[in-house]
Write a structure and sequence with these properties.
2 copies of one chain form a homodimer. Chain A has 409 residues and is α+β, with helices and mostly antiparallel strands. Chain A has 8 helices and 13 strands. The two termini of chain A are 28 Å apart. At the A-B interface, strand 5, helix 4 and helix 8 of A face strand 5, helix 4 and helix 8 of B.
C-alpha cells in the first residue's frame, strides 16, 4: 500500500421533490438531474423524494456509466423515496423505518403515508468501509406551532441510535438527507452530539453557493414563499454530515450548493438546493485518543432538552388518546340508543314512528362513521404514546449512562 | 488479567403467555416465574409476551436483587411484549420493528397489533461486549396452510440482517426467543446460516428436559392439543442461539427445558417451556480464521429457498391488492349510483319513490362500510407488496454478493 494515500470522495445530496402528479415539471427535472450527475461524475449520490420507481429506473439507466451500483429503499405505502447511487459496489443495505411519522389523518401533510425511514448502504472503497446513510425526516409545516416537533425529535433520536449501532465496524460514516431541521434545532444538535457527526457546511475549507448554505431559498421558483417569510435568506435543512473512526480522518475540502435556477435554463432541479461535498479521507499516522469528554455537559444538556420535547409530545398524545377514546364511547352509546329505539318500534312498543326513517338511518350512519374514525384514532394515539414513552426512557437511560461513564462514539 | 479466564453465563428464555384477560392464571404464573428466577439466579433473562407493563413492573421489583438491570421494549398498540433482565449494567438498547407482521383484519390472530419486533440490549461483562437479542416472530396457525410463511421468512431475514449490522462490535452474540419455527424450517436455516449463529440445543454438551428439546408439548395443560396432533412429542420453537467473534469461543455446557407442570404445583409457568442455557465464554489462544466458505453452497441454497417463499407471498399479496382495489371501486360505483338515484328523486324526476327510504339508506350504509374496508385493505396490501419486493431484492443482492466474494460474518 502506498504511503499515506488520500481518498477523495465526491458526494451529491438532493431532495428531488419528485411526487407523481403533484410536483411541477417532474420528469423534466429528473432528466436534468440525471444529466447533471452524469456530467459531474460523483462517487456517491444520495437522493430523497424519488417516489416513483419509474423515475428511479430512468436515473439508474442514465447513471449506469458513472454510478453503476444503486439501491432503492422500499417502505410504507408509497415507498421511502430514498435511493443511493454509487461508483463502488454496494456490499449490504438495511432500512430502518421510524416508529413515529406524523398522523394518517393529516392527509394534507402526506408524511405518514411515505414511511419515512433511514437507509443504510455499505460500500468498501480501497480497503475503507464506508457506511452511507440517507434519510428524510418529517417536514415542519409551521415553525411557530410545530405539532410534529416531538415526532421529529424521536426520528432524530432513532436516526442517531441506528447510526451508532450499525456503524461500529465502519471506518467512515456519511449521512446525507433532508433533515427538515435548522442547524440550531434541538434534533440536529442531538443527532450531532450523540453520534459525533460533523457538519460539512461548518467544516468546509471552501464554500460556494447560497448564503449561509441555505437549501430552501426564496429565489427558487418552486419554494413556497410564505414558509420563508421570516427567513429572507432561506433556510438550511439539507445536510451532509460525516465522521471517521480513530484510525482515519475525514476533511471536507469543498462544499457547494446549487443556487436556484439551473444555469441556462428556466427551472431549478428541485424545490430544494443540492448539496455537494468533496471529502478527503486519510489514514491517520498515529491513532488519536477520542476526546469527547469535554463536550459531555453540552451533550447532557441537549439530551435533556430533547427529552423535554418528547415529554411535551407525550402529554399531547395522551390527551388525544383520551379524547378519541371518549368520542368512540359516545358514538357507541348513540348507536346503542338508536338500536334500542328501532327494536322498540319493531316490537310495537311505540306504535307510531316518532322520527322519519331517513333521519334515523342517517344518524346511525353518522354515528357508525364517527365510531370507526374515533376507534382508529384511539389505536393510533395509543401507539404514539407507547413510542414516545419508549424514547423518553431510552433518553433517560442514555443520560444515566453518561453520568456514570464517558461516551464511546 | 488472569490467564485464560472463563466466563460462565446462565441464560433463561421463556415465552410467558401473559395476555391480560385472555391467558389463564396469568398473575399466579408471573409470580411463579419471578420466584423461580430469584431462586436460580440467572445472569440474563429474556422474556416474551409480557404484554402488561404491570407484570413487567412486578417482575422488576421481584428481580431487583439478582437482576437489577432491565429493559422493557415498547412498540405497536399493545407493546412488543419483550423484556430483558440482566445481572450486568445495560449500556444501550435498540428496537427494530419488523416491516411485516400479519394482517390487521385477522383479529382472531392478534399478531398485527403486537408490533412484533427484535430488541437489542448491549451489556459488558468483564471486558466482553455481549449483544443480546430477544424476539418473537409471527405465529404459525396452520402448518399445512401457513398463510403467514412469507411474513415469517421476511421477519427471519430482517432479524438476521439486524443482527449482522448491529453486532459488528460485539464479542459475543446471543439470541433468545420464540421464533415460531421448527428447527428445519427455511426461516431458521436462513437466520442461522446468514448470521453464523449456533443452536444451543444441538451444541449442548449436556441436555436435560423435554424430548428433542421441545418447548410446546402436549403434556402442558395450556397448550392447544389440536395444534400438536401431528407431533406427539411436541415441537421446538423457542431457541437460544449464540456465536462469538474470532477472538472468543462460546460453548454451551448445559441446556435445560422445563417439562410442563412446575414440580409440586398443578400448573406450568406458561404454555411454552422455558429454555435455560449455561454458556462458557473464553478468550481464544490464537485467533482462528473464519471457515464459512465451506458452507457457501448451502447458504446460497437456503437464500434461494427463502426467496422463493417471499416470491410466493408477493404473488398472493399482489392478488389481494388487486381484489381489494376492485372491491373498493365497485363499492364506490354503488354509492355513486345511489347518489344519482336520490338526487333524481329530490329533483322530482322520479315522482314516486321506487324503493323504501330505509332500504336505500341501509344499502348506502353497507356500500360505504365496504368502501372504507376495501380501501384500507388496498392500502395495507400495497405496503405488503412493497415490503416483500424489497426483501426479495435484498436477498437477490445477497446471493449476487455471495457468488462474487466470500462471506464475512
Amino acid at each position: 500500500m502506498e504511503k499515506d494515500p488520500m481518498l477523495r470522495l465526491r458526494v451529491f445530496d438532493l431532495n428531488c421533490w419528485a411526487i407523481c402528479y403533484l410536483s411541477k415539471r417532474r420528469q423534466e427535472r429528473i432528466s436534468l438531474i440525471g444529466d447533471q450527475l452524469c456530467r459531474e461524475g460523483f462517487d456517491l449520490v444520495l437522493l430523497q423524494e424519488i417516489w416513483s420507481e419509474r423515475d428511479y429506473s430512468n436515473l439508474k439507466a442514465k447513471l449506469g456509466g458513472c454510478c453503476p451500483f444503486s439501491h432503492y429503499f422500499r417502505s410504507g405505502v408509497i415507498g421511502s423515496g430514498l435511493c443511493v447511487f454509487s461508483k463502488f459496489p454496494i456490499l449490504d443495505t438495511l432500512l430502518y423505518q421510524y416508529s413515529l411519522n406524523g398522523y394518517p389523518y393529516m392527509l394534507q401533510h402526506g408524511d405518514w403515508f411515505c414511511g419515512k425511514s433511514v437507509g443504510l448502504v455499505i460500500v468498501r472503497i480501497a480497503e475503507i468501509t464506508v457506511n452511507i446513510y440517507v434519510t428524510h425526516l418529517h417536514a415542519e409545516y409551521s415553525r411557530e406551532k410545530d405539532a410534529y416537533l416531538p415526532h421529529r425529535v424521536v426520528q432524530a433520536w432513532e436516526l442517531a441510535q441506528f447510526i451508532r449501532h450499525t456503524a461500529k465496524a465502519a471506518d467512515v460514516v456519511l449521512l446525507g438527507g433532508d433533515l427538515n431541521m435548522h442547524p440550531g434545532d434541538v434534533g440536529i444538535r442531538l443527532l450531532r452530539s450523540w453520534t459525533g457527526l460533523r457538519d460539512a457546511f461548518t467544516e468546509a475549507q471552501r464554500f460556494e453557493g447560497c448564503e449561509d448554505g441555505c437549501t430552501l431559498i426564496p429565489s427558487n421558483c418552486f419554494t413556497v414563499k410564505s414558509e420563508l417569510q421570516s427567513f429572507p435568506l432561506g433556510i438550511r435543512i439539507d445536510y451532509i454530515l460525516y465522521k471517521a473512526v480513530s484510525s482515519f480522518t475525514v476533511e471536507c475540502e469543498e462544499l457547494r450548493t446549487t443556487t436556484g435556477t439551473v444555469p441556462g435554463l428556466d427551472i431549478p432541479y428541485s424545490d430544494h438546493e443540492a448539496v455537494m461535498a468533496v471529502l478527503c479521507i486519510q489514514r491517520r499516522q498515529q491513532t488519536a485518543s477520542v476526546t469527547i469528554d469535554a463536550a459531555m455537559p453540552a451533550l447532557l444538556e441537549v439530551l435533556s432538552e430533547a427529552r423535554t420535547e418528547v415529554c411535551m409530545g407525550l402529554l399531547a398524545a395522551r390527551q388525544q388518546r383520551y379524547s378519541s377514546g371518549r368520542m368512540a364511547v359516545l358514538a357507541m352509546l348513540l348507536l346503542l340508543l338508536q338500536a334500542v329505539g328501532v327494536l322498540g318500534m319493531l316490537g310495537g312498543v311505540a306504535a307510531a314512528q316518532p322520527f322519519p326513517a331517513l333521519s334515523v338511518s342517517l344518524l346511525a350512519f353518522f354515528a357508525l362513521a364517527i365510531l370507526l374514525f374515533a376507534a382508529g384514532l384511539h389505536l393510533f394515539h395509543s401507539i404514539e404514546v407507547k413510542m414516545l414513552q419508549g424514547t423518553e426512557e431510552q433518553m433517560e437511560m442514555a443520560m444515566r449512562g453518561l453520568q456514570e461513564q464517558p461516551l464511546h462514539h
